[in-house]
Amino acid sequence: MGTRGGRGNSTVSGIARTAVLMAGLTALFVGIGAALGGGRGMVVAFLLAAGLNLFSWWNSDRMVLRMHNARPIGPAEEPRLHAMVAGLARRAGLPMPALYVIDESQPNAFATGRSPDRAAVAVNTGLLTMMPEEEVAGVIAHELAHIRNRDTLIMTVTATMAGAIGMIARLGGLFGGRDRNNPFGAVGMLLMIVVAPLAAMLVQMAISRAREYEADRLGAEIAGHPRGLANALQRLESGRHAFVNAAAEANPASAHLFIVNPLSGARMDNLFSTHPATENRVRALMALAGGMPAAPAGGARGPWTGPAPRAPAGRPWDRFTRRGGRGPGTGPWA
Predict the structure, then answer these.
(1) What is the 3-state secondary structure (H, E, C) of 67-96?
(2) How far is 9 from 230, CA to CA, in rounded Å?
(3) Which of 241, 58, 72, 211 minimizes the C-alpha distance to 143?
(4) What per-residue confidence (pLDDT) applies to 132?
(5) Residue 201 — pLDDT band, cuts 50, 70, 90?
(6) Annotated active-site residue in 133, 134, 143, 221
(7) With contact defined as beta carbons under 8 Å apart, do 100 and 121 qualify?
(8) What angle do CA 63, 66, 71 make, to 5 degrees?
(9) How confident is the model over 56-83, as a mean pLDDT?
């Protein structure tokens, strides 16, 4: 299968990028320690960063899921959704990830986990409410592409480290400026409050933008055609402006985890967005679609589905639909 080629190269590349990212953020962490306490502060910051890296490696996925109030959802609750994800995972050559649902009106989704064997995909109820199944499949395939490329480890470690850097910089501003022996002085401490979180954000941006394009491309291959994901991205972009994601606004360091930026932009978040412009991603997917066979006609079963699951007609997530919401889906699973 075409989507399985180069899997070993993706794994090596993901590990290398993780090492570079962790080294860069660790250096930034140590630099903050030096600004706060000189040589002693540098040593303390290095030890804290080493401990945080280790903690992030093992626990950051659970932290992120808790941060966004994600709840696990089993096959007994949503058999057709599980069947869709299982079929897409088979096409990607991946084990079935754990599935989570976030009770959030803004349509969005993210993947997390330090390895494919420990991966999880979380989807907002807003996504399940407003999207036909072909578009849901495109989103899920994009997240599976992140898992296969080992991007999920990079994303979760970055979210933890960037959040910690911002917190330490703020604490440094509160307490570091009072130290008369501080070589940076009050002005230097004020600069650190601004520069340290900004530097962490730039590290996120350097990794995230190219990673999203690659996940779009591979996700389109996993789903069988780019059009579903392209349509989903347009719907997601509209939805993120219509609803405020309170959990993401409270934890902006996790914004790069999502398939589209969940932040409102009210605090200049768009100026340093970790995501490429949605219109550019859609344009790249439609260019990819031009070189692929036509998508299946409406009502045809997609290549990800496998045997038809035994479940009631309509979408398995109809119980999430708010009053006045869309009726049963008409995608390739209907």
Answers:
(1) HCCCEECCCCCCHHHHHHHHHHHHHHCCCC
(2) 26
(3) 211
(4) 93
(5) low
(6) 143
(7) yes
(8) 135
(9) 86
Amino acid letter for position 201: M
Contact 159, 253 (CB under 8 A): yes
Residue closest to 75 by CA, chosen among 331, 325, 328, 309: 309
Q: Is 101 helix (H, G, I), strand (E, B) or coil?
A: strand
Q: Please, how many CA atoms are within 13 Å of residue 326, restricted to the half-sphere of its CB?
A: 17
* HEC profile of 197-215: HHHHHHHHHHHHHHHHHHH
CA atoms 231, 217, 75, 308: torsion sign:
positive
Token match 């002005």: residue?
Answer: 187
Q: Which residue has the higher pLDDT, 333 or 269?
A: 269
Average pLDDT over residues 298-316: 42
The mean predicted confidence, pLDDT, of the chain is 74
Write out the DSSP string of 109-168.
Answer: EEEE-SSGGG-EEEEEHHHHHH--HHHHHHHHHHHHHHHHTTHHHHHHHHHHHHHHHHHH
CA contacts within 13 A on the Cβ side of 309? 22
Is the confidence at residue 252, as pLDDT, over 60? yes
Looking at residue 330, its pLDDT comes to 37
Confidence (pLDDT) at 272: 52
User: Is 249 a residue of the active site?
Assistant: no
- When pLDDT is averaged across residues 18-42 and rounded to a whole number, the result is 70
- 19: how many CB neighbours lie within 10 A of its CB? 10
Q: How confident is the model at residue 133 (pLDDT cuts 50, 70, 90)?
A: very high
Report which residue type is found at 121: V
